[in-house]
Amino acid sequence: MGATKTEHYSEKQNQISTLAKALGHPARIAILDFLLKVDTCICGDIVNELPLAQPTISQHLKELKNAGLIKGNIEGNAICYCIDETALEILQDYFKTISTNIEKKKSNCC
Amino acid sequence: MGATKTEHYSEKQNQISTLAKALGHPARIAILDFLLKVDTCICGDIVNELPLAQPTISQHLKELKNAGLIKGNIEGNAICYCIDETALEILQDYFKTISTNIEKKKSNCC
DNA sequence: AAACTATATCGTAATATTGCAATGAAATAA
DNA sequence: TTATTTCATTGCAATATTACGATATAGTTT
Asked: How confident is the model at residue A7 (pLDDT cuts 50, 70, 90)?
């Protein structure tokens, strides 16, 4: 099939998996890393940093934006991208919760 | 094309994206949630919890295992799965680093 | 206005993922 | 030994993703 059966899972599970999926490509991690590395929000030139053609990067940016991981502001004829903290906080909280739950369990096998 | 150009990215970027990709499906998040919810490691019956056929779940478990997110111990003719903390720590550290970096920047735009 | 710059969208080819029925393999129970 | 149970693997169809050339759009410059 190839189509995920999203309707069978909880909203939280879909939310986390959607965010994780958006991060599931090295180019998109590289974009986030670059947005962090640069002091101000970056207007363009992500294309010069990655080994991908402009349409491909535009597509990756769109996916990050759709997932809510980055925001884009129009600035003249360029677009200024930066990280959206909200989404990252959701992920951070999720992993923190898992970690504390594991800690609590101290599994009796494995 | 459809093939990711992994060779162009840093090891860290590939590591994080691989882990994120493994979490990029609600069924796999549901599996992790279930492993956490149950007190001991679970031997089977994930199939009864999810709306997917047994081969499909076996496939998802394999992907989680390949990514290093879960471990499996053979126990008679059943297999006992549980979460591997190491991979989760890597992700947690990554998101923590991003958060502190964003905090430091206090972006002057967006 | 025309030329230029920056980004998005379209179309398409190559490849990957998702899901399942059928089947296999391996331990256990009868 | 012959079921039975539990999980993995194979093979395949449907769909999604990745990448890019060509083209469109929109602002800027000349």
From this structure: confident
